[in-house]
Specification:
147 residues; mainly beta; 3-stranded antiparallel beta sheet; 2 helices; globular
């Protein structure tokens, strides 16, 4: 099967697009691409029902998995099992990664909803947005590491 990528969604200055949709896989998996255009990343959270894999294609990222942190760069891959607290922070001015969820769940809808926000969601709005897409918000985004 050949999948056609979606047009990019704009989330702040960053872009997200679906490369393989849940509709194309009967919900088994979805694959997305992230193009970051500045430092930052999502808050600490977990997925109750999905495993997630990140494949770094460009840039420098700090990942937190549970209580451990690690730096990832182009060519690195990390697996996040369902129920594992995680977050990442892009440290470089630009970055690119592919990531996948299995099963796909409602993750594509989450990024569409996030792109529809007029700016970063307020804490209560973020908590509701995550919960509506089967995730649990656990804490703030990762801080930039000390030099």
């Amino acid at each position: 099967m050949h999948a056609t990528p979606s047009p990019p969604l704009h989330i702040g200055s960053d872009e997200c697009r679906t490369l393989l949709s849940s509709r194309e896989t009967q919900g088994r998996i979805c694959v997305l691409e992230w193009r970051g255009h500045g430092e930052g990343g999502p808050p600490l959270h977990l997925h109750e029902d999905q495993d997630e894999v990140f494949m770094i294609e460009a840039g420098d990222f700090l990942f937190q998995l549970g209580d451990a942190q690690q730096r990832l760069r182009a060519g690195d891959t990390v697996f996040v099992p369902r129920g594992q607290a995680h977050a990442f922070r892009q440290l470089s001015p630009s970055g690119r990664m592919r990531y996948l969820y299995t099963p796909a769940g409602r993750m594509e809808d989450f990024f569409v909803a996030l792109a529809g926000c007029s700016g970063p969601p307020e804490p209560a709005q973020a908590e509701a947005l995550f919960a509506a897409h089967d995730m649990r918000l656990l804490g703030p985004p990762l801080a930039a590491p000390l030099a």
